[in-house]
Amino acid sequence: MKPINSIHDKLVIRIGLSLSIVLLILFFAIMTSQKEAIIAKHRTVATTMVQTAIIPINDALYLAGSENDDFLQSFLKNFVLEYQDEIKFALILGEGGRVIAHSDISQINEIYSDVYSNSALESLDPQFHIYRDNQFGGVMEISAPLGLITLSHGAVRLGLDSKPLESELRSTMLFIIGMILLTLVLVIFIVLRISRSVTRGLRHTAEAIDAIDFQTSEPLELLETDDEIGLLNDRFKRLQERLINTRSSMEITNKNLVQTEKLAAMGRMAAGVAHEINNPLMGLKNCLHLLHIDPENQADHIRLLKDGFDRIEIIVSRLLEGARKKTGTIKDYDFNRSVRDVLNLVGHRLSKEKIITQVHLNDTIPPVYNNKSGFEEALLNICMNALDAIGSVGTIHLETEIRGSNVAVIVGDSGPGIASEERSRMFEPFVTSKEVGKGTGLGLYVSREIIGAMGGEISYSTSDLGGAEFTIELPIRIEIDEEME
Questions:
Q1: Residue of 114, 163, 168, 113 whose CA lies nearest to 140
Q2: Cβ atoms within 10 A of the Cβ of 283, count?
Q3: Pairwise CA distance, residues 20 & 280, whole Å
Q4: How far is CA 440 from CA 273, 349, 350, 435, 450, in A?
Q5: Contact 432/423 with Cβ under 8 angstroms?
Q6: CA-wise closest residue to 449 among 421, 430, 428, 432
């Protein structure tokens, strides 16, 4: 496909325009010079003609001693007849512009005061004028003074046909235009040939670039010349060699990166599983402590122990099956009871660290059809983060509510909250504001993944207690057949 705005086109257009301007200027200069030469030639002929007429007229005036009208009229008539193919009119003016003799006898004794008559009477040298007359058309007039050797004076005016002059000017102009156009065409042809020879090498290089295959180990061969195109081909060949070497290095690097990514994925999975198992283990530890100090509620504590072991079993099964996002089965459950169970799992820390709990559960919440273990795991992560943020002595607030076709649990704390510059990254893996060794940065990430897979979402805001406030919102019924993916 021909490139748009190619160098070839630009060279032809720009050189063509430049040359056209130069030739146009040259045309006007030559035409002006030729016009002046042609006019000068015709002026010389006209001057010779009027001087031929002046000599006998002056002789007649000198011999007669006064104006001899009959002689002058007769002479003028014969003179016009002799040059009838060239002269359109002839007249002799006396003093005051009176016509003494005229080729048109009706004009005798008329007084002429036009600019050409005045010029002829006032000048001591022959005057030459070219103009168009309403009666005679194109006129080339020559005039000369009379009475140079007598006291009488006047002037002779000869009106010559300007067609020979115009014809010569026209033919000269056409000849010059033809020569200039021929020169322009010839130069443009030469420019086209030169441009094609220059751009041919560039097109060959472009085609070679299109055909390059970086899969090969050898660079593409290009034309070797001593001009700039050869220099361009040489530089491109070097670039091609560097690209091939770089690609080989990148392939080796990519292989290393794939292996590194596999190791990193295994590390992230191990860290995530360890984090997910750690929370149920903390709950189991709290249940064992409650069994020891509160044997009367043994059945509830044993149920919580069983739930904790079930969560650990699900996490281990997920790891073994390679299904990272599988979080448990879908079933109906009591949303408020799950919230209380999570609070019981962290009850030991609540009492140990003297944290006040404010719990407001909406009794009108219907049974929820969703992933019970996944919800409790996410809520447990949120509560553990709240306890870690508070430290010792503080308040944690839990509230449940209905939002249309969704249920929500709000967890707020009196801790320091999350800095504004960290909020945009708080759900990313391995991002934590805890001290080194006290957090993996996976809690919020894992929780959002679990809740998102259940068709819900987790949002953050500032708590009325001054710290962080997280809201888990879930659909009351999720449209999935068996298991979350």
A1: 163
A2: 26
A3: 91
A4: 11, 20, 22, 10, 17
A5: no
A6: 428
Minimal CA–CA distance to 485: which of 269, 315, 272, 323?
323
Q: Where along the chain do its domains lie?
A: 7-172, 262-475
Class (C level, CATH) for 262-475: alpha beta
Say what the pTM is: 0.42
> Which CATH fold topology does 7-172 show?
Beta-Lactamase (3.30.450)
The residue with greater pLDDT, 396 or 63, is: 396
Q: Which residues pair with 138 in a beta bridge?
A: 132
List the structure tokens of 158: 């000869």
Measured between alpha carbons, how far is 164 from 141 in angstroms, rounded to an integer? 13
Could you read off the pLDDT of 177-204 as tens digits, one per residue? 888 888 888 888 887 777 777 777 677 7
State how far the Cα of 480 lies from the Cα of 485, in Å rounded to an integer: 10
Whether the pLDDT of residue 350 is over 60: the answer is yes
Chain CA centroid to CA 103, Å: 78
Task: State the Cα–Cα distance between residues 143 and 51, nearest whole angstrom.
Answer: 9
7-172 and 262-475, same CATH topology: no
- 218 pLDDT more than 70: no
In angstroms, the CA 232 to CA 216 distance is 21
Residue pair 378/424 in contact (Cβ under 8 Å)? The answer is no
Write the CA distances from 105 to 101, 139, 441, integer angstroms. 7, 20, 125
Alpha carbon distance 31, 37 (integer Å): 10
Identify whether the C-beta of residue 462 lies closer than 8 Å to the C-beta of residue 417.
yes
